[in-house]
Amino acid sequence: MTTPVQIGWPQLLLFIIAVIGVGLLISSLMGLFKRRREMEIFEDEYGQRYRRWRKHHRELRWKRGTGGILLLVLSISLLWLTFAIQSYLGLTSDIKVAQIEATSFTNAAPQMSVKLTLLDTQGKPTSSQTDLMNGDMWELQCNVLKFPSWMNIFGIHSSFKLTRLEGTYSDPALEANSKHTVVELNGGAGDFFKSVYKQAWTSPFVDAAYGGAVLEPADGHTYDIYMSQTGLYAKPAGK
To answer: In which domain of life is the source organism classified (predicted)?
Structure first.
């Protein structure tokens, strides 16, 4: 699985704001619930006087805690703003993970030549292969681990693994009865659904674990494949 971490100046700025918000939240709560101290004077049997501070139990100080309440509102507002902006950045920070160009031709049954170029998280090619596949549509499949939105504050993108390239047919009859061509990628799905998938539902650090796919016709156009926070999607290259 690949887990991109997108750290830039927006994430650093939002992290600083979040730290300030947490600090203000703690300070405001401490201001609202503060121990009251009183000076006590007592005298021993020899007539000597002593002074000491006596601490009382913590109490809610509404009248004196106006400043604390304002800090509380400010801190909650800062935290809400931080998570809202970071969630937006996470949803719009899609990662280009592959590029596919497929051209179809007809023999006895539809076939296509599919060129797949895999990219790293920086958009640089890591491998390229061209396969002759049955069908007139291609399908790229992946496994996805979706993390909770609060982890976006650290710039953590959804984890993914491209697992399979498959040829399919636009004709339902051919899809049901014709031979399919499958190319495994990155070792395939492996033990993903046997281990991670089952554990994900009880983990506080994973929202969901699932398989995803993108399907496009072999029309001779080049498609850029992107991984969003929720799964794969394709769009024509250059758009």
So the answer is: Bacteria
- Of residues 147 and 78, more confidence is placed in 147
DSSP state at residue 187: T
Q: How many CB atoms lie within 10 A of CB 167?
A: 26
pLDDT of residue 205: 74
Strands (E), the chain: 33-43, 49-60, 95-106, 110-119, 125-134, 137-146, 159-168, 182-184, 208-217, 219-227, 232-236
CB crowding 115-141: b at 16 or more within 10 Å, else e: ebbbbeeeeeeeeeeebebbbbbbbbb
Taking the CA atoms of residue 235, residue 9, residue 125 and residue 147 in that order, the dihedral angle to the nearest 10 degrees is -70
The torsion angles phi and psi of 72, rounded to 5 degrees, stand at -65, -45
pTM for the model? 0.66
pLDDT tops 80 at residue 79: no
Residue 185, both tokens: 């990628």
| CA separation for the pair 165, 214 (Å, rounded) | 10
